[in-house]
Amino acid sequence: MKEEAKAAFKKAALGAENNAYDIIAKLDPEYFEKLKGLYVDATFGREGALPRKTKELIMVGICCALLRPRGIRVHSERALKLGVTPKEVLEAMEVAAIPGGMPGLWLGVETLQEILKSKGQEFK
Predict the structure, then answer these.
(1) How far is CA 90 from CA 9, 18, 35, 81, 111, in A?
(2) Residue range 88-105: average pLDDT?
(3) Domain extent at residue 95
(4) What is the pTM of this model?
(5) Average pLDDT over residues 58-67
(6) Which of 36, 61, 64, 110 could join 104 via S-S bond, C-beta 3.0 to 4.6 A?
């Protein structure tokens, strides 16, 4: 079952790298199976009332408000991969500045700029 769970995480990741899941799967396979249930089955692997794009934008905002650079990068990359525009990602970051403060917005926009630069894209 662990390999099936790892495949589900990889699919839900949309190409974003997170080696921590491989480590968790190795160190505590039972916990990893439970985590898959929450992360993949209940959140990112299903289309509920909110489409995946919206869920990723929510995560971008939360990660900005909490000053989580890794989360900002991963969820911004996933949102862009799903067809969200850079402007939409930026607006999620801007909204997060209300509860989270300006440092989260600064971290977010710097991260977004790095992502776009690495893809050879400009902000539009």
Answers:
(1) 26, 23, 29, 15, 10
(2) 98
(3) 52-118
(4) 0.88
(5) 98
(6) 64
